[in-house]
Amino acid sequence: MAATKIHAIYTDDDLLMQAVKQTRSANYHISEVFTPFPVHGLDHAVGLAPTRIAITAFLYGLVGLSVAITMMNFMMIQDWPQNIGGKPSFTYYQNMPAFIPIMFELTVFFAGHLMVITFYMRSKLWPFKKAENPDPRTTDDHFLMEVDADNHDVEKLTKFLYDTGASEISLIEKEEDH
Amino acid sequence: MSSHYEAPIREPLVLGDKSYHDISVDVAAPVLGKASKSWWIVFTIALVAFLWGLGCIIYTISTGIGVWGLNKTIGWAWDITNFVWWVGIGHAGTLISAVLLLFRQKWRMAVNRSAEAMTIFAVVQAGLFPIIHMGRPWLAYWVLPIPNQFGSLWVNFNSPLLWDVFAISTYLSISLVFWWTGLLPDFAMIRDRTKSPFQKKIYGILSFGWSGRVKDWQRFEEVSLVLAGLATPLVLSVHTIVSFDFATSVVPGWHSTIYPPYFVAGAIFSGFAMVQTLLIIMRKVSHLESYITVLHIEYMNKVILLTGGIVTVAYAIEFFIGWYSGVPYENYTYLSFGAATGPYWWAFWALITCNFIVPLSLWVKSLRRNIMWTFFVALIINIGMWFERFDIIVVNISKDRLTSSWTMFQPTFVDIGTFMGTIGFFFVLFLLYARTFPVIAQAEVKTIMKTSGEAFKRLRAEHGDDHSHVQHVEQYPADAGPAANVEDKDFDSAFDDLTEEESENNEIDIELHRGKIENLLSRIGTYDPEVNKQDDLKKISGVGPVMEQKLHQLGIFTFEQVSRMTDREYDLLDEIISEFPGRAKRDDWAGQAQALKNKN
Predict the structure, then answer these.
(1) What tens digit of pLDDT does each residue of A27-58 get?
(2) How far is the C-alpha of A107 from the C-alpha of A102, rounded, in Å?
(3) B19, B163, B206 ranked by CB distance to A102: nearest
(4) CB B211 within 8 Å of CB A131
(5) Are residues A73 and A102 in the same domain?
């Protein structure tokens, strides 16, 4: 089914915020917003759920810590214990003070890298990915709001969007992927 | 708007009447433009130094470490000095991008990109030295904990040298992804601005297809925050672990618990000096004076003052402990032969002069804000911090516990050439970066424009903090459809002064409307220059320079006159000035004028 969208372009972030609020309160559905920089509070205004990416970072950090402990316990305590400068190597606990730097480094390593990879995967960012912003000016100084127009009177919606301060409005017919 | 409030006492961080578009243009200019002649000259010099260093490295590796000036007493000299120096320089980048992000310091946004680039390039130089020092760098993988040909003899996790391997590689890689993630929106900006298909292709790949969706930005900000939270302890841990290389040993002068904080402070100190060195040149060459301002330079000088003070106290404590501990080895390291009075006195006093005495001048505000002086001090600190590491390493081990093996260190041309080579390599990377990367995090700078931009601060000073500069223009004057879909029509750019052309086309046909004008003035009162004082009508929301000019032509000059307007007068006004019907009434000019009049 072809989806009809309206792209409304704004030239100011405060104007966009106001337009987003007005559009939502008029019960139109905003399907996407493209902005050149993070507009403070926009995610909340559009009605997005908070991101859970920080939670994943915490979990990845725990994985990194476990990897560090398991690795050093196996290598230094079980597989080939050595007397190095008299540091006790009978149990992990006794030798642990010397292991703290690497436990910390691997926690950070896993948390940081895996979180960023998660971010790239979730937001579909990778080399050779084609950019999907509909108007190149949205990375410069323009703000684009995409509104669903399927079950609405396009004339009325267009007039409404102009009244919210849009400087350009275009009607888009999209082939839905699914 | 009130959400963009910032205390007026704070100086602006973005100078000039910049719009969002101006920022894109200014940041993209060095990338899209041609390299200047001076760039090519500096690049060539750096490249020659790099190649010279490369030759020295190849000579070292093919012949052996014996080509350096090391002897059996002094087994670490320039190599490890350079290693610590370069790692230390890297610290400022992470401090600016991570620690200042956690503290919500807006001034970091103009400098973080370049500081992080400096971090990465400096850590690359640092990493070279331990690898060369291995003598057989093709066996460098032996430092990794992987199953190997010696049965299961693993790397030694008790050794600070191995901690270094983990710390430096984590630091380098985390800094790299932090930097790159921040770069995505800026690469995307260049991708969408450039006209060249080749650049479009390259920056399209580099930008990972960044589109700027609201969800992407939400994740982007969260990821930046978490990475900053991870990088802050990481940066402290890295130089702490570097200092463990010395502190956990038993060499007199090295075996010291003060080393971790002392090294971290010294690292930030030297790193900020290097940031100053690079940015003072770059802001000039790339014309970024509006973004990297004297204020930024002053802030960084304050960090230099603080960390320089910490380092100085650490030097004093070393001497105090040399006396107070009563340990004979500490005694000859600091006191009886002594760093200050022994054969390496010149290195010690170079350190004191460069790291303590010269930076003291930054306590003077006019010197702290003097760009030439700052550049000079930054160069001096760079030199001083190299001497600090030379003092720590060479001076301390030149006198070990056996007096018979006390000796001096003489660098060979290979030592010097390798060091010069890494400086060349560093500048090659940085110069290439300055030509191909967006050197200012433009997306982030755009977010602080309305709080900290000079033009917006001035607008707030003139119109008050709660004034919205977004105009509510009637979209359908006389219901004839959108009149003019022009850019910026919804934005009251009060900092654009009226151009000549606009003022010329701004005449009201006085003759045509004479009757109405007289009618209007008879109701609201006339303006007599002898008695009344002219008010700034632009203070009324909805009155711009053009409108003010029109009102002046009608003979309306004071708030008093405007405040007497009622619906009838508004209608008359609309008939005379037909451009903005209903505007005056909707914005309640009379009410606003009344309030402004009472304020005067």
Answers:
(1) 999 999 999 999 988 999 999 999 999 999 99
(2) 8
(3) B163
(4) yes
(5) yes
Total domains in chain A come to 2
- Say what percent of chain B tops pLDDT 90: 48
Inside any domain, residue A127: no
For B19-147+154-452, give the CATH class: mainly alpha
Partners of A53 on chain B (C-beta within 8 Å) are 219, 222-223, 226
Q: What is the mean pLDDT of residues B486-514?
A: 54
A 10 A CB-CB count for B215 gives 16
Inter-chain CB proximity B214 and A14 less than 8 Å: no
Say whether pLDDT at A107 is over 50.
Answer: yes
Residue A69 has pLDDT above 70, yes or no: yes
Is B89 strand, coil or helix? helix
Reduced to 3 states (helix: H, G, I; strand: E, B; else coil), residue B359 is: helix
pLDDT at B505: 54
Residue A47 lies in a domain: no
Upper half-sphere CA count for residue A14 (Cβ side, 13 Å): 18
Contact B234, B94 (CB under 8 A): yes
* Domain housing A71: 53-122
In the DSSP assignment, the letter for residue B394 is I
Q: Which residue has the higher pLDDT, B587 or B353?
A: B353
Q: In terms of CA atoms, which chain A residue is nearest residue B242?
A: A101
H helix intervals, B95-136:
100-102, 108-133
Q: Is B44 helix (H, G, I), strand (E, B) or coil?
A: helix
What b/e readout covers A9-42, taking b as 16+ CB neighbours within 10 angstroms? bbbbbbbbbbbbeebeeeebebebbbbbbbbeeb
Average pLDDT for A80-87:
84
Residues A24, A73: one domain? no
pTM to 2 decimal places: 0.80
Last residue of a domain, one of A122, A140, A158: A122
Q: Is A48 left (phi over 0), alpha (psi -120 to 50) or beta?
A: beta
Q: Do B476 and A12 touch (CB under 8 A)?
A: no
Q: Is B152 in Cβ contact with A80 (below 8 Å)? A: yes
For residue A129, being part of any structural domain is answered with no
Q: Closest residue of A to B443, CA-based? A: A37
Q: What sign results for the dihedral spanned by CA atoms B428, B117, B352, B246?
A: negative
Under 8 Å between Cβ of B39 and B431: yes
| Least confidently predicted of A33-47, A70-84, B454-468 | B454-468
Average pLDDT over residues B360-371: 94
